[in-house]
Design a protein that fits this description.
The complex is a heterodimer of chains A (177) and B (332).
Chain A lengths: L5 E8 L2 E8 L4 H8 L18 E4 L2 E4 L12 E3 L13 H8 L9 H11 L20 H7 L10 H17 L4
Parallel strand pairs in A: 1-5
Antiparallel strand pairs in A: 1-2, 3-4, 3-5
Helix pairs in contact in A: 2-5
Chain B lengths: L4 E4 L3 H7 L4 E4 L5 H7 L6 E4 L8 E3 L5 E4 L4 H6 L1 H6 L1 H8 L4 H6 L2 H5 L53 H7 L3 E5 L10 E5 L22 E7 L6 E7 L10 E9 L5 E9 L6 E2 L1 H7 L6 H12 L9 H19 L1
Parallel strand pairs in B: 1-3, 2-3
Antiparallel strand pairs in B: 4-5, 5-8, 6-7, 6-8, 9-10, 10-11, 11-12
The chains are: A alpha+beta (177), B alpha+beta (332).
Chain lengths: 177, 332
């Protein structure tokens, strides 16, 4: 490949530094799926509209399909594969999704999980918050608004909101997942 | 997607000096990368400016704010000074896109996302904006004009600017600082553009969304001290979240001790090629005691010049009702 159109990048993926040469056109999503073998992030629309590709970049949820890998040189990426501490130690949100049956076909689920993990760490109001001066409690209405970047064609929204609500309640009472 | 070279610029001067024909500045990429994938944009050189411009929001002595062009939309909306002093701005940003996109999108990039319509995004269709002189498919018989402009459009283009942020900045009299490759800029190599002068109406040159010259780079946005009175942003869309505005309004109303409106700002989104400052409506409200009939008259004054297309006269009604009800809400 012509070197003018490719770049050496180093990204830390799920805690492991990975050095790769990428075509400048390659998205973070294609880098993860095609080069690094991480097929958790899904290619739904490839236009930033469905959220199935959601990953955490330096702790913030982003659409991996709209992120050029070359622009994320030096970033730390976490995918759904990196959420769980181990095969028998799922992330609390993963356990909540299982417990509340928050999926049907499962295609959107990796994006929903990463999005929810990122969302729970985001400060401030949302478009449905009445008082901009407060960080509002994450009611079902707030969760629906904040998760609107993730579509589910099976329509599992009701249980997705329940699963996230259950996790929010646990975080508020401070009990272990 | 066309192959391109990539470079990270270290400063505005560095970015501007690297600019050449066929280059594009990259912010969060949420619009540009999508347009590149669609084949609508095909830069051969991409200059990443996310580290070249400030990512900070700073409080100025005047009470205003300076917002670096690299500030991410989500950080803008959650900033305490933005929420406290410019609630319409926080509300506008929160009304736009999704959490993921707001995390990536920058302030400069949001302002410079393309004015667009579905025909602009479809390279199989003629489009004067994408391919000057090829025609406007939205003006062809049977075209879907539901989401197109009702104000300020031309026979060459009826697309709308989708930014919510830009509508609020227009109502707040913000100005943008621009680094320019030309010697004609200010002594420090920069110039200022007052909103809404950044964006332009299509006229006979719809390929130009803004008044920026080739290679110019937005480096920051400056907000004047917060105006008195009450302000808000209201967006009407086809679904409850994550959709462009059919019509949106950023509005401010300040009533003096004599019971008369001493300040009124109204800007509309979703209705034109650029964020639309409704000066005619504001003039009706200013200097008189606020009342529903006054607001309705103000809306009428602005919208009497609307030219709806076959499928979007609802936008005229919607804009009229939205202006009236939002001002009523600010009055009480």
């Amino acid at each position: 490949m012509d070197s003018a159109f490719a770049t050496h990048v180093t990204v830390t993926v799920n805690g492991v530094a990975r050095a790769v040469e990428v075509d400048n056109r390659m998205s973070v999503l294609d880098l993860l799926r095609e080069r690094l073998g991480l097929t958790g992030p899904k290619k739904g629309c490839d236009h930033g509209q469905c959220g199935a590709c959601t990953v955490l970049a330096d702790g913030r949820r982003v659409n991996a399909c709209l992120a050029l890998a070359v622009a994320y040189d030096g970033a730390s990426i976490q995918t759904v594969e990196g959420l769980a501490a181990g095969p028998d130690d799922l992330h609390p949100l993963q356990r909540a999704f299982l417990r509340h049956d928050a999926f049907q076909c499962g295609y959107c689920t990796p994006g929903q999980l990463c999005s929810a993990a990122g969302m729970l760490a985001e400060p401030g109001p949302s478009a449905v918050t009445d008082d901009l001066g407060t960080d509002p409690p994450l009611t079902p209405g707030e969760i629906r608004e904040r998760m609107s970047g993730n579509l589910c064609r099976c329509g599992a929204y009701v249980n997705i909101v329940e699963a996230i609500s259950a996790e929010v309640a646990k975080m508020e009472t401070g009990s272990a997942g | 997607m066309r192959a391109f070279s990539y470079v990270r610029a270290a400063s505005p001067a560095d970015a501007v000096s690297r600019y050449r024909d066929g280059a594009a500045y990259l912010g969060g990429g949420t619009n540009l990368v999508d347009l590149m994938r669609l084949g609508v944009a095909a830069p051969e050189h991409v200059i990443d400016v996310t580290r070249a411009v400030s990512g900070e929001i700073t409080d100025r002595e005047s009470g205003g704010l300076t917002i670096g062009a690299g500030v991410r939309n989500s950080d803008l909306a959650s900033h305490p000074l933005v929420r406290g002093r410019y609630p319409m701005l926080a509300r506008a940003v929160l009304a736009g896109a999704s959490g993921q996109i707001r995390n990536a999108a920058t302030v400069g990039g949001n302002l410079l996302q393309r004015t667009r319509c579905p025909y602009f995004q479809d390279v199989a269709m003629p489009c004067n904006k994408r391919s000057p002189g090829s025609g406007c498919q939205a003006m062809a018989p049977g075209a879907d004009t539901e989401h197109m402009a009702v104000l300020g459009h031309s026979p060459f283009c009826v697309a709308t600017h989708p930014s919510d942020l830009a509508v609020a900045l227009t109502a707040l009299n913000a100005r943008v600082r621009v680094a320019s490759p030309e010697d004609g800029a200010g002594p420090d190599g920069t110039r200022w553009i007052e909103m809404p002068g950044l964006h332009r109406l299509p006229g006979g040159m719809p390929e130009q969304d803004t008044t920026l010259k080739p290679g110019e780079l937005i480096t920051e946005v400056e907000l004047p001290p917060p105006p008195g009175g009450r302000q808000t942003y209201r967006k009407v869309r086809e679904r409850a979240s994550f959709a462009f505005a059919l019509v949106s309004v950023a509005a401010l109303l300040d009533v003096g001790p004599d019971g008369r409106a001493r300040d009124c700002r109204i800007a509309l989104g979703g209705v034109a090629h650029a964020p639309w400052r409704a000066h005619a409506a504001e003039r009706v409200v200013l200097g008189v005691p606020p009342a529903t009939e006054v607001f309705a008259g103000a809306a009428e004054a602005e919208l009497r010049y609307a030219r709806p297309l076959p499928a979007n006269d609802y936008k005229v009604t919607l804009a009229r009702n939205l202006i009236t009800t939002v001002l009523e809400e600010l009055m009480t």
